[in-house]
From TrEMBL:
Location(s) in or outside the cell: Cell outer membrane
A Pfam family per the record: OEP
Keyword set, alphabetical order: Cell outer membrane, Membrane, Signal, Transmembrane, Transmembrane beta strand, Transport
Protein known as: Transporter
Length: 443
């Protein structure tokens, strides 16, 4: 029994470890979010609703077909449907009818309703595209934040390894009487502070991973992790372009302006539809009906009565609007105001987009300068740290000065990490404005 249980436990352990080794790449995170995000699903449902609106608009061109039937029992003075005579008796009757109607002209409202449904579908598609871009960008930002926190944690751990080495060496030198005991206490204090920073950094990594998992609607926080890849700064030439070129591209490709433009087109179409109510409506109709009564004077059978008592009616109907309590006029006025409002919204969307592109352009350039400055500062602090380390190793400086130099070097590495990932993100925002699809961004 034990021989069976041991391999089985190893199998369970192997499966558990395999489940825990899943590490998500950025592309996997983006794809998962686009497939599962609730806001994206709601936008997809909105797009499906426009299909129903289009189907209804197409149906307005088709004839209407309706059938009805009734059966009743009459007692007392009632009209016999088979001979149109009043009879004071009890009898049963039945009737059936089929009616066909077709709108021939309604002020072109049916035509414009179909045009509106197509515009509404485009607007819904643009809203879905924008939602996907926003979600992809949010996931990328959250993902890069995890990478930044992990990089900072790696810095803290690597520097603590150096501190532990110095602690061991200083302890030996203090025991040998070469260094004062104060240097050992200073190194121990540095080690304690670094371990505290490591604990904080580990907690920060966990919190950022949970935030990313929540964004992806993943509930298994404990087994969620991302791939520790080296993300480099990949510039496809966007930073060298003139801001005016990026603005023009954004106006042509960004969904914000397209949505606002489609809202204007929809408002124009609504105005045309409302004005169509001023015109007469012409429709055609055709009807077939038949009837039966069980007190037929000739005692005809049910089928014979349906055949002999039938009739048809057909013709044209013209409905001319004359006065409807200003309903049409007020509706037209509301749509005129709505059109003007959407035109203002389009103008504002264009201004906002231009402002946002300028801001993104300035942010990207500022982030690049900050990263370049941080890189230079890191190089300088690294040289200063190495110099302080060499002096400390030969006893030319004390532990306090060495720990301060090491702290400045640590902070410089953390700042270099921060500015690097911030520049990567700002660069990708600028690429999105230039028209690069979110799923084609290079990291």
């Amino acid at each position: 029994m034990k021989k069976i249980a041991i391999p089985f436990s190893f199998l369970i352990l192997s499966i558990s470890l395999t489940a825990q080794t899943k590490q998500w790449t950025l592309q996997e995170c983006v794809n998962h979010a686009l497939e599962n995000n609730i806001s994206v699903k709601q936008s997809e449902l909105d797009l499906e609703l426009t299909e129903a609106d289009k189907l209804e608009a197409i149906g307005n061109f088709l004839p209407s077909l309706n059938a009805n039937a009734s059966a009743s029992k009459n007692t007392g003075l009632s009209l016999n449907p088979t001979n149109n005579q009043l009879e004071n008796t009890t009898f049963g009757s039945a009737s059936a009818a089929i009616n066909v109607g077709l709108t021939l002209f309604d002020g072109l409202r049916n035509v414009r309703q179909l045009q509106r449904s197509k515009l509404s579908e485009l607007a819904a598609q643009y809203r879905l595209d924008k939602m996907k871009d926003d979600i992809a960008l949010a996931v990328a930002n959250s993902y890069l934040q995890v990478l930044l926190n992990k990089a900072n944690l790696a810095v803290a751990k690597s520097q603590n390894i150096v501190t532990l080495e110095q602690l061991d060496r200083t302890n030996n030198l203090v025991d040998a009487g070469v260094l004062p005991r104060g240097d050992l206490l200073e190194i121990k204090a540095t080690d304690a502070a670094e371990k505290q920073r490591i604990a904080v950094a580990e907690n920060t990594v966990k919190i950022s991973l949970i935030s990313l998992a929540q964004l992806l609607l993943i509930k298994d926080y404990s087994n969620f992790d991302i791939a520790d890849e080296e993300y480099k700064i990949i510039d496809g030439g966007i930073a060298d372009k003139d801001v005016s070129e990026i603005i023009e591209s954004a106006k042509e490709t960004r969904s914000e302006v397209k949505i606002a433009q489609k809202n204007v087109d929809l408002a124009k179409k609504d105005l045309q539809i409302s004005r169509g109510a001023y015109y007469p409506t012409l429709s055609a109709f055709f009807g077939y009906n038949t009837r039966y009564a069980d007190n037929d004077p000739l005692n005809r059978e049910f089928i014979d009565q349906l055949y002999l008592n039938d009739g048809i009616g057909y013709g044209l109907q013209l409905n001319v609007p004359i006065f409807n309590g200003f309903t049409v006029r007020s509706n037209v006025k509301r749509n005129k105001i709505n059109l003007k409002n959407t035109e203002y919204q389009l103008e504002q969307a264009q201004l906002d987009l231009e402002s946002n592109v300028y801001q993104a352009y300035v942010d990207a350039n500022g982030a690049l300068k900050a990263y370049e400055a941080a890189t230079v500062a890191l190089e300088s602090q690294e040289l200063a740290y190495q110099y302080a380390k060499d002096r400390y190793d030969v006893g030319l400086t004390n532990a306090f000065d060495f720990s301060q130099s090491k702290l400045r070097y640590d902070n410089a590495k953390i700042e270099e990490n921060r500015t690097k990932f911030e520049y990567i993100f700002k660069l990708k925002v600028l690429e999105l404005y230039f028209g690069v699809p979110a799923n084609e961004l290079k990291f």
